[in-house]
Write a structure and sequence with these properties.
heterodimer; A: 3 helical TM bundles of succinate and fumarate reductases; B: mainly alpha; 5 helices; about 70% helix
């Protein structure tokens, strides 16, 4: 059996366990629920959906809390998924590590922007 | 995931390094295979287009003025992009989200139910493809102003 622990451990691998698998499903369920919550509010809003009705959805504090949590869930979910893609297709470790770092930078930047937008309304 | 496995018996040939252009087009995927690879492609697409998604979130909720800019992108285009291209990218996102959501629900359903059989894998995959493409067509028709 190939040695892949100790000094031979693949440092750009996963944690070889349940955690990320479970996290991906928990975050996915949360995002599916969020989709339903937003969709229901859009469907049951009265009249044509203009700025006031749409932005009004994100005004209540509970909706801000939910959306904030979903942004974090999405960030983690996408990280697990993109890391899987890099691990499957990119074999040179240096390139893989670079792409993983770029993915984290990309995701954290996007999450920061989304959170900033959320508290603008 | 790189699972450690014992060395294969030497008599059996190993097929590695599938050539994307030479080998993949000749592969005939079952419906579950299509759902699987499209799940990955749709996820990667949304990852790449994340700034556009947040741009839509930003302009659509920040103010009346930004909302007007948001609407204008779909009517008059955005920067150098014509409106039809903005709509096409949005249509791709609609498909990606629907496919990823429905295929994901299929996964979770199979995970919690353990009711995994070849028949269910096939029928649920066909259901996923039909529902995601059907809803994409309905929402796409709305996006392009057909009704």
């Amino acid at each position: 059996m190939a040695v892949n622990f100790g000094s031979k451990r693949i440092v750009v691998g996963a944690h070889y366990g349940l955690r990320d698998w479970l996290a991906q499903r928990v975050t996915a369920t949360l995002m599916a629920l969020f989709t339903a919550v937003v969709l229901l509010q859009v469907i049951f809003s009265k009249g044509p959906i203009g700025y006031a009705a749409w932005a009004g959805i994100f005004v209540p504090q509970w909706m801000k809390a939910l959306t904030f949590t979903v942004i974090l869930a999405l960030t983690y979910h996408v990280w697990v998924g993109m890391r899987d893609i890099w691990m499957d297709y990119i074999k040179p470790l240096g390139l893989r590590l670079s792409l993983q770092v770029a993915t984290i930078v990309w995701l954290v930047a996007c999450a920061g922007w989304a959170i900033q937008v959320l508290w603008r309304v | 995931m790189p699972t450690p496995h014992p060395a294969p018996p030497p008599a059996r040939r190993e097929f590695r390094n599938i050539h994307a252009l030479r080998d993949l087009p000749s592969y005939r995927l079952p419906p579950a295979g299509w759902v699987s690879i499209l799940h990955r492609i749709s996820g990667a697409l949304m990852f790449v287009l994340l700034p556009f998604i947040i741009w839509m979130f930003d302009t659509s909720i920040s103010s009346e003025y930004s909302f007007a800019r948001f609407s204008s992108a779909f009517n008059n285009g955005l920067w150098l992009l014509p409106a039809v291209l903005v709509k096409l990218v949005t249509l791709a996102l609609i498909w990606a989200y629907l496919h990823h959501l429905i295929a994901g629900l299929r996964h979770v359903y199979m995970d919690v139910n353990h009711a995994v059989s070849k028949e269910f894998g096939r029928s649920s995959a066909l259901f996923t493809l039909a529902l995601s493409l059907g809803l994409t067509a309905v929402l796409g028709a709305k996006l392009f102003g057909l009704y």
